[in-house]
Amino acid sequence: MMTEPPPPGSIILTDWHRSVDSKEFLSRIINKKQRRRFGLLEAPVLPPQLSVDTVRYKVFISGKSGVGKTALAARLAGLDIPSMHYETTGIETTVVFWPVKLRENGRVLFLRLQLWDCGENALRRFDHLLPSCKEQVDAILFLFSFTDRASFEDLSNQIARSCEPSDNIVKLVVGTKFDLFMHADVTERDVKQFQEVWGLPVFRVGGDVFGGLGEVAPLLNALAERLWHQDCVAVAGGQPGSSVSAEAGGQAGS
């Protein structure tokens, strides 16, 4: 059964990445104001005095062709965003590391998010790809573009195709190309009505990112908070906020 999401900021310190306390940890994923790139077998190198647990999660990025799935993965990882759109021919994975601090006990966790991105045409052609993306998935990001109303109206189909109502999966919606407001086909009223019907938060991304964290931090923190809450509930048998080990967190990347 899907757990009720925690109130924003109730589990992790959402502005911690702006504090002096976070600099030692962020320096492990940022070099000269640029995010470090991590391969599947790489991880941030931490000094012995920093006692940090790493929790691993698999995140599937779902959406129609052209909404910006590959660009979002690059944005969350701090990588160069493709200047031209191309259809992803199969499954592409991107690793994102993100540190958070728990509000209750001040414990710092490093999230390892393995983002799975698959082209829409490939999903239609090869029946095995969607089950592979959904296998042991911990969270799904459902994307639409503010400049493509059809992608917004397709959200319900995306949700129905990717998960069951009873699935214990974190679900977030991301509206891309929010900066192109002059060409927007989706209004704030549309977004509000969607949130009221589906009860899912909608995040907005768009514009260029020059090594900054301001735009991606809210989405990464929301993912972290809901994923950790989900693990706490699962391990504690329905008691949110109970102690849970890092080894119990997530299912991907092992």
UniProtKB/TrEMBL annotation:
Record key words, sorted: Cell projection, Cilium, Cilium biogenesis/degradation, Cytoplasm, Cytoskeleton, Exocytosis, GTP-binding, Nucleotide-binding, Protein transport, Transport
This protein's record includes keyword Transport: yes
Sequence intervals crossing the membrane: none
InterPro entries registered for this protein in UniProt: P-loop_NTPase, RSG1, Small_GTPase
One example GO MF annotation: GTPase activity
Presence of keyword Zinc: no
Coiled coil: none
SUPFAM superfamilies: P-loop containing nucleoside triphosphate hydrolases
Cellular location(s): Cytoplasm, Cytoskeleton, Cilium basal body
Single Gene Ontology BP annotation: cell projection organization
Family note: Belongs to the small GTPase superfamily. Rab family.
Name of the protein in its database record: Ciliogenesis and planar polarity effector 2
